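hi!! sorry for the late reply, been swamped w classes. u asked for the two structures so here they r. pasted raw, havent cleaned anything up. first the sequence of the first protein and right below it the tokens
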Amino acid sequence: ASDVYKRQYQRRVRERQTRKATMASRGRLAPDVTRFLLVKNLPFSITSEEIYDLFGKYGAIRQLRMSDSSETKGTAIVVYEDIYDAAKACKHLSSFNVKGRYIVVVYYKPEKKLAAKDPAQQLAELEQLRKKHKIDQDNE
């Protein structure tokens, strides 16, 4: 009877370890992680098929946008189907050597640029908060 309990216990321990490993690999991500990756410092001679092959190793790609204007040449945006695949690709491909150039891979957040507020508006809001909470600027 003790062998049966011992095997059951060992099985439960293995299952628990497997669950923990799975949760750790697919666990919570940082708040700045997105499905959009901005890739910089790409060689000018690279094709979209080569980028697709390189980034496709980490998961299904929904969209690939390559820049062809003179100001942004050598950059691309890779959009993954799954956020975990994007996190994996960002982790493994950042500083990866492609055709003699080290690429830079970061999470792309377009809403950050749109969310930037006017400094005058920020000062006005700060002043309203000071009045609301009765904070005197001289006491700081």
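now the second protein. again sequence first, tokens right under
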Amino acid sequence: RRAVIVVWKCQGHASLPLSPQPALLVCRLVQHLASADPPAAQAMAALQTIDLTAVFTASSFKKKAVATNVAQQARDSAASAKKVKSFVFFEVEILDAKTKEQLCFLDKVEPNATVGEIKSMFHKSYPQWYPARQSIRLDPKGKCVRDEEVLQTLPVGTTATFYFKDLGSQVGWTTVFLTEYAGPLFIYLLFYSRLPFIYEEEYEFSTSPHTVVHLAGFCHSFHYVKRLIETLFVHRFSHGTMPLRNTIKNCFYYWGFTAWLAYFINHPLYTPPLYGDQQVNLALGTFVVCELGNFSIHITLRNLRSEGSKMRKIPKPTKNPFTWLFFFVSCPNYTYEVGSWIGFTIMTQCLPVGLFTLIGFFQMTVWAKGKHHMYLKEFKDYPTLRMPIIPFLL
């Protein structure tokens, strides 16, 4: 393979110094022409750009291509090594919250892994503890870390230590509410029908002569039918399950109170309220308004986020007047719920109903305060006028 040499005849001019490098030779040739023969240089400048590929041999270009490829591979290897070096895996140690005994050690956990993914990894080692049953904490007596939390954002080092607590058997929220609400609906109707062995034999399958008894039965049934419909078609639950033992306690509370208050309201010796129809009508109006308000708030909360989303937003009033209570309280659904039971208490003038309303108010106040503080912590622009459950007071 012979190199191509370009020869330029310059009569009467100094000879061109030689160079072992062809590219440098061409450059010196052009410089020599510019100084020794300006007309020739101008003529050369008028020509198209010289393609040096016609000057160098194929072997030269092959060597250049190989060198370029090697250099590119070296740069890619260096970048890859730098990327691997900057990617740090975590080691996750899971201990028993009571005994501090190590249950599991997870190696090479990616820093962007969520707590939910760590629960799934832990579940592979202990199949009996499915993710919904696990409570993962940073401190043995601390709060449960949410599944959405990312490992590298938690206050832990590259060797993270978590504490596990078994929450026990879990029940889905839909099943929980259907069980809690279907029970009171049927239990109340058993007393309303005056089945045998509930009251004296002479009153079996009899009906009360008082209108308020039948009205109370309708209102009580309407309330729990509404709850069942909301459970099936309205509510979207942020948490998937509830511990089975809590479900049993809740059912005992709802079912037990229902049997107690239904026994007295439907008793053959029950007497109507002190102020008669005027008291009943006022209480009925309060009950209906609060039930509509409670349903309106539940619809508004449902529309606040799409199905499957866990993104939180500030609940705000809509064109529906029942939602305007959002201007003053953080949890108007609880406000309306308490209002419904106050109306039912005034309507029936029954002590067990009053106790059920009072206990429910205390419990809902605790829930409302918790949600209110969560809103204040999560949203910097949260309305300062709002109170948890009672406007301007509580």
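hope this helps!! also noticed smth abt the second:
Residues 1-20, 45-56 have pLDDT under 50 and may be disordered.
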